[in-house]
Structures are given as structure tokens and as C-alpha cells.
## 1
Amino acid sequence: MTSSQPTLDLDITGIAHGGTFIARHEGRVVFVPDAVPGERVRAQITDASKDSFWRAETLEVLEASPHRRAHVWAEADVSRAPEDRVGGADLGHIALDHQRVLKRQVLQEALDKFAGAGIEAPEVQAVDAGDGTGWRTRVSLHVDADGRVGPYAARSHRVIDVATLPLARPAVADAAFALRAQKPGRVDLVEPGDGRVRVLPRPEGGRRGKQESVYETAGGRRFAVDAGGFWQVHPHAADTLHQAVGDALAGRVDADATHFDLYGGVGLFAATLGEQGASDIVTVESDRRATEHAQQNLAAFDAQAVTARVDRFLTGLPEGTRAGAVVLDPPRAGAGRGVVESIHALDPEAVVYVACDPVALARDLGTFRGMGWDVTSLQAFDLFPHSHHFEAVALLSR
């Protein structure tokens, strides 16, 4: 950051999707991290290349919000120079209950803008009674050319040396600080259901070899997954989402119909469908190893695990295929219009949408509503405390 960039005193008026905050200067929106709505901050402009908005970094808090707290991660605190603040805990300077208020605001604004009128965002629910630290069972650190190991600085690929990892599970943090002599690239640390941390080096240019299979649990059921494969990061997340999807499906699963679990991973929600009475289940996932695990994990049910891209799978189904219920858990970009249209064509009794991005969810809900679907219920869960991320579960019916 150079001294030639202008410095402005700004009033923070709201929160934006993505964990930054909103101010205005001479009619132009300015996106500012490390602030709280209601504050006045001194910020330095970092990007004035767009006419419609600028980006800035908070240098000093001039008038603090009553919701401001000392940052849970000392290395991310506003007292440090912006280029030395680590990323990954962009709401960690805000009281935990108010973080959830702000997340609800983000969801409501997304729904109002993209999903159409009449959907009220729910409260974002806590999933444990803790202080929002010590929950990350999976942490990725980076190794620079000098062998320095740590997280990236916010909005940067610069590795920061840290003395703490407060969001990590204690055993994961211990394993991180015990790392020695790593090659440049990335190191993943994973604490699966057995509690023993796996260290997975991913050096630059290295090929990903065969991985160890580990076990996780949800709803009292064990799921095999590659150590470096996808599983929810918060230890209560899989149980929470399994329960929410099960509650949404209750009474809506016809045992004689075919049910679809899309973007199914290792079969978590396919198992939820099975527990709700589905006897014919198809789970679709593009990662081959995940579908191999899914076939194993779903042995107790009449389930078929298909390795395919969801959009291609749906367009390849025979004309006239109908579904009982569809569960989908798409990536951050959402399902998109083509997938929503294909799900609509299956004429399912119900659709349960699990979302990790509020804007993508709202866009897809808007598409469903345009085809005659209603949002029957909507829940949101704070599965990523001290970050802007959260999960939502929507039930759609005709």
C-alpha cells in the first residue's frame, strides 16, 4: 500500500455479500473490510479503477460500534497494518450474536434482489454454545519460497507467520505448529472422526496421489471419505444439515419413486433420503473417488452412485423420467438455470436445496419461483463462525 493512495473518513452503512462493508463517498460505493455498520473509519483507497465502486482498507476506527470486539484472531486485528492481517476470519472483530444478525441481513437482501418478494430470511442459528473458536477440522496453510508456513494475508497470496490459529481444532493447530521443512505449495491438515490429524502436503507441481480413506459420522452413521476429500468443516455441520434435510423431507418421500441426490459427495443426503423411506436413490457427483465411497456408504439402501457432472446427467435422462424428491447441494456458484430447469422437468414432489452461498441460492430460488415453485420453509445455520459464510436449507414445493 503506497502513501499516494487517498485516505478518506467514511461512515459504514451496511454489510456486503462476501464479508466486506459498505460506505459511500460522493455517491460512489466504497467496499471496506474490518469495519462494522454504524462505525466511522479512516480508510485508504486501494482500488479506484471502477467508476461505480472503489475498494479500501481500514486504517483506523474513529467511532467504534458497540458490537466491535477485540478480534478473535490477533493476527487479523485492525491494529495491524492491512497487508499483515490474515484472512479467513473476516467477521472476527464483531460480537458473535451480531455476526448472525448481519448474515441474516445479507440473506434477506439477496432474497429481495434475486428471489422475488415475499420470502423472509430466517434467523441464522448457532449450532453450538461456544465462542465460535476451535471448530475447523480442516485447515489449509501455504508455504512460500522461503519455507514460511502460514495462512495468506487477506486478499493476498502473501504467507503470514502466525502464532495462533484460533478457529482450528486444538489438535489441528498443534499439528500446524509442528510442521517442519515443507516444500513450497500448500499443506492441508485434517482431523476426521477418529480425532487423529492427517498432514497432507501439496507441493507446487506435485501430483495428488492415492489418499487414505478416513471416517466421519452424521446421524449416527459412518461415512468413508478421502482424507483430502470434501466433508463439512464444522464438527456439528453434517449432523445439523442431515437433520434439517430430514425434517424438510419428512412425509414427502414416496417409497415407490426414484429420488435424486445431486452434487452428492460421499452420500450424506442420499442416506438422509434413505432414512426418510426412499427405496430407490440415485446420487450424482463428478468426483470419482467420492462416488466410490458413496456406493460403499449407501450399502444399506437401494442406491446407485453415479460419477457425472450434474448438468450433463440431468440432460441425459430419458424423457418422461419423474422424481419423488430431489436434494441438491451445489458448489458456491449455485446450480444455475439449466440445472433448475432440468429438475423442474423431473416433476418432483419436493426439492430440498442446501446452499453455501446466499446470492447463488437466491438466484436459483428466483428461477424455481418463476416456474411455479414455492419456498415452503427456509433455515440458516452459522456453521462458519467469525467468517461471512453460512449455510441455508430451503424446501420447495409446487
## 2
Amino acid sequence: ENDLINKGVKIFKNQTNWKIESNKKTIKLNDESYLNFGHIINCAGLQADKIAHKFEVGNQYFILPFKGIYWEVKNNFPFKINTNVYPVPDLNMPFLGVHFTPNCNIDQPTTIGPTANLALGRENYFGIKKIEPISSVKNISLLFNQYIKNKGNFRSYFHEQAFLSIQPFLLKEAQKLVPSIKAQNIKLSNKVGIRSQVFNREKGTLEDDFICLTEKESTHLLNVISPAFTASFAFADLVIERMKI
């Protein structure tokens, strides 16, 4: 953050009630001050759909948050996993499945996961903190409907992913990639993530690719759920190419 500030970047925090002015070139901040812009890029993750809607863009999309719980490889495992280990992707599913991810810090453990269960709020990382009861009930109802109608092959997702938060089920998936790993070699990690999964109201399905919506004043990135893809220069180049400026 300090590096960005030193380069002239201005950071405005806790701006929960900001508004777009009618000219679509000005943002009114919480303290009644104004921020003018030429073109805005919305890459706000779990809040990206709400921001897009303020610009009257992508109203058919909204984010259905999925919580990812991780396990980690303990020091008693005799082998060091030094590279990412991924399953072969199922192109009919929007979720990758369990995989091994080493840490860039060699002193930190390799993680296994994540799971993908519905979060009870966009910021519901731990326990009952920041639960959103009304939206949670709506989301559960929506997913139940997805299961009954099996839209987007959702039933297969549920059967494959829903129980991975339970150690024996997760371990079974992990052993498909690293057969020698056992229950005594893993423990629950403190690492938790929430996936900004987009649901398409018009199609009635989960989106399985990133979405870039652009207009004259703004560009909105939704469903950008891969950390590696998000951090790539190629992705940044693609966004710049699609901006209508």
C-alpha cells in the first residue's frame, strides 16, 4: 500500500455509500467530496457486481459467494511438494476441484483445497461473522432450484464438491493426486477464501468464464476467480484492449 501511495496512487477506504453522479464522470464520496474520472475499471471482486449495477451495467449478473476451506500438509509428510499439482479440469464444471499449492515462502506449508460451499455472506470468512441472512436464504433457495432442475450440470457439482469440507472426503480427492498422503499428514489450515462466483439470472446458470463488460465510461470485471489469471500481464493487456476509450 505504501509503495502505491509513494507513486501517487490515492486510496479511499470505507466508501460504502458512494454514488455515481448523473454525468457518469463523477463519484460522490461519503464525506460529500467528489472524485472525477475519465474511465473507471471495476475489479472489486466480491463487490464487483454491485458496482457494475451502479453504472447500470450487467444487471443480469450477481455474485453467489462460495467459501473455500483449505487443509495443509504437515511436516511429517516425507516428501516436499515444490510445484502446483492440479486435477484434469472438467470443462462442464465451473469449479477446479481439490489441488496442491506450495507457498512462495518455503517455510510455509503446501495447502490442499479449496472446498467450494456456499458462504452465508460475501465477507463471511469465519464462523458467524458478517452473515447476511436474507441473501443467504435467497441463495440457498436458488441453489436448491439449480439442483432440482440440474441446470448447468449443477447436480454433478453438488455430488462431487458438497462434502469436501469433511476430512475423509477431501483426503480421498487429494490421494488421487498424491496417493501416498494420509490423514496424519494433513491438518486444517487457517487459510480461507471466498470465490466471487457469478450467477446469470437470464440463463439461470453459474458462469464458468470471466466476464468483461465495457462501456464508454467504465469497464467491469466479473467472475475473475483465478488468482494466477488475475495477476497475469496478458489479462491486463486484454482488459486495456477491450476498454472503449
## 3
Amino acid sequence: LLASNSHDGSNAIRLTPTSIRTVCSNTFHMVIPNRDDEQVRPDSAAITIRHSGKLADKMQAAKQALRHYDETVKRNVELWEAMQAKRMDADSRMKLFADSYASMWEVATPEDLSSTDENVRKTARHRLSRMQAAAELFIQRYADEQSKLGLGDSAWAAFNAMTGFLQHDKKARGEDDSNRVEKRIESNLFGINASRTHDVLALALAS
């Protein structure tokens, strides 16, 4: 269980079940697919406790939630194994990449690329170039992980390649290397990249 808290009370206390030492966001966030939802959307098993109201009551609620941890682990094992058993060819992998990328960033459209407005065409070409560079990183990470892990062409392998690009390959902004590393970790575990990881998982499950 990873417990995190801010020093000044500006953020909620977070209690997140995890089956491994926290290094990667994929296995840090235990997820529970909503099987009753037509659009299978995983929900985080993390528990957040705000610094307001009766904290003792909230801690008791957290204890009760953590009792379901074993069930959550079992359901996740089933989920990962199902994804590993699900075959995904090259076209399907690139569709997962394209759908994931388009859900996170603006992409070039054929209309913009052929626009009579030079500024519109310039912006579209820049977006296309960034997406092509990201696609190359995704393909390279997929190939590298395949050679090391031998997972086969599975939905699990494609999911990990996409989130690997997102969490590790895409450049992070910051004043210096130390600041960039700190921002990346925060984003991967608790911020926008954590949310995006769940979105990629939902797309991989629906593929």
C-alpha cells in the first residue's frame, strides 16, 4: 500500500493498493473494470481522503475499502491475462496508438493540411510531425519490449507500449532534469498521465 500526503494539506491523502514496488504507473494503479457498463471503463482502486470533515470516519471508510483488496487483485489478474490472450495485429496496434494519441492531443486533419490558409497548414504540419515522431517511439518501444519479454502480439503488449511511451518516452517539461523527473513522477502516479493511462486501458479493452 502506497500512502502519500502533502505537507501543507493542499492535496488529499491517497492510499493506493499496489502489488509491486512502485516504479511504473501501470501496475501501481489497481483498476476495477465496470463489467455492467457497455463502455468498459476501469476505475482506480485508490482511496482519497480530503483534509476536511471528520477524518476518523474517513479513515474507517478507507479500512473497509482496503478489505476488498484481495478481490481487486484477483480481478486484475483476470484482466491482465485476458488482455495477454487477446491477439492484436499491427493494424490494431496502430489504431490503439492513433485513438489514444487523438484523445490526448490535437491531430492534423486532411482539411487543415490542404487549407488555403498558410498558418492553418503550418500548424497542421507541425501536429502531423509530432504524431509521426510519437508513432516511431511507440513502434520502437513495442519492438524493444517484445524482444526482451516475448509477450507476443497481444493487447497487453500494445497497452504497455503505449503507456510506456506516455510515461517514459514523451518529453516532460521542467526547469532542469531534476524538476522534469519530479513532474513526470507526479504526473504518472497522480496527475494527467495517470488519467491517460486509464484511458488507454479502456481503449485497449474495447479494441
## 4
Amino acid sequence: TSVATTSVPTTPGATASGPWGWPGSTTQGYLPPHEPDVDHDGKVVIGLLTAGDIHDHGYYQSEVDTMNTFKAKYGWKTIVVANVNPAAAAEQADNMCRQPGMDLVMIGQSELAAAAPAASSSVCKGIPFWAYASAGTMKASPYYYLAEDFEDPQLYVTGVAMGLWLQNHHQTTAGFVAGPALSFTERPARGLLAGMRSIVPDARLLTTFTGDFNASGPAITAAQAMVAKGVKLLFPYLGGALFPVADYANSQGVALISDGGEFCSLSSPKFVINAVYNPGYYLQYALQDFAQGKMRVGTTKQFNFGLTPVPTVQFCNPTGTESNQTLDTLMSEIGSGQLNPTPKINATPQP
């Protein structure tokens, strides 16, 4: 499946032949010579900066898993700096560039957008960058390959799936447990509720922000409070706390939505809705190109329904009114531009 590519304008600092004199154009992007051995020293070294726990079995670990796949296949060396404080992102990016033999630096999430200017810094001269961000949170640049996805469509369709599950199980209330109460955690709650109410008009989403994506104690306590209120469907929007909360929820007979991972095949914990959007799935496209000497900076690759296999939303074992065909049709309408869920989300109160 092809990936949508959009051109970016040349910005100050990029020469007519591209950043660092690399060949290319504003429409096709710029190709670092000798990829993947960009510095031409006989070995390939790639480095990742990530804001979270790389042992979370999900969102943050997904990029490391993808890196390790390529490491095993090609014998590359990988360097990972995890739990990066966003305030220190630029400094950490410069430090990564100083690592001997660095051929590619990856900025793992929108949370680390402050690292983006390092790609054009003198410290990182001659090193291509890859960056992942939700659309609108990072500016395009000739100095890096930007992978973008779209938060509103993903969460709205997941909400529709939740609504169909509630309808099928004669329920009206679901739960949402997240870490800090920030824009990138509060907006998803609205998106889920908007999708739920498109199926169950009086649906409610009980929401708790624990302040920490990785601390399982507060997250499990939040889940316990929801179970006590009769919640039968839970979205643990978490990092390292995801699986501990999922295990607890399963022990209480509560159904689960996956937080970005392809988890339908897991025997424990069990998930009923697969919401797949982990950045590791997006990174594999870039690393495939990089391995073949084809990864161009100065391009933006957009991942949305109908453009690529991921993101996607599916029921693991649909029954009754839980229809994957309904979800497929909805995703197709979004991908083709027939449906824009953002106005619906904007009109939905914060749960």
C-alpha cells in the first residue's frame, strides 16, 4: 500500500541542492548519500529519542521493537535514550548526534518536538533525521523525514467501536484511564465520547487522569473505582501501566481496547477492540527505505485511514451489532474525505 507524500517548502538554511548539499528538490525531498551508511565508515548506527518507557509493551516500545527487527536483519547498531524530558529534547538530540558513527537520528513522538531544530544544527551536520508527530504538532523541514498521523479520526472511530460494543452488551458507560491531564490525553477522551454517542446517544465516558503513564498503582486504583461503578468496557490510555491495568480489568470481567498495539492475538490480557496506531508501525516504512538507500528527508508521510494498513480499528471477535464492516466503511469515508470527525469532536464536551 502506498504512503501519501506531501512536499514541503525550502526553509532558511537549506541550500538549492538541499540540506548539507544533499541532492534532491522541494517536491521529491533530499537523499543523503551512502544511505544507510551515511558517514561512509563501514557500519550503520541509528539512534532513537523517546519520551516514554520502552518496556511498556505498546506505544513507546513499538519503535524499539521496529529498530531491533532491522538491527537483527542488517547488523546495525542501535542507541536508545528513553524517558527524555521534553525540556531536554534539543540537548539530547545534540548528544545523540555526537555518538560515534551516527547515521540516523529518530525523534520518537510529538512530545519531543523541541528536538526538531537539532536536525539543522552544526552539531548534527550531515546526519538525517526521522520524526513522528500527530498532525499539526511539528513543522515540516528539509532536514528530516516527518511521519504524521491524525488523532481525531483514530479516536472517533475507536469511539464508534466502543459505542457498538456498548449497544451489543446493553451498556451505556465506558471508562478511560490516562496519565497526565494534557491536551494530547484530554482530546482523545472527547474523540472517544463523540464516537460513542454517534451510536449510543446517552453514552458516558468515566475519565480519570492519574498524572503518570507508567505508575500502575494509581491506574489500577482508578480502574477499581470504575469497576465499582459498573463499567464493563475500559480504555487504558497508558504507557508502562497499560498491561498491569489490563490484567486487573480482565480479572474483573472488563473488556479492553488496545492502546495503539495489534493485540487481538494475545491470550492474556484479552482485548475486544484493536485500535492500532503505534509509531513503530510507521517507523518501519522509513527504515525500509533507509536500508535500501531511498529514505529522503524534506518529505512528510501521512498515515490515515485508507492510505496505509495502519492506523486501523477492528473488533477482535465481533458478535451481534459489533460490525467490522461498519468500521471499514467509516474509515473509508474518512480516508476519502467524505467525513471529517473533527467538528463532531469539537461539539462534544470534555468528559
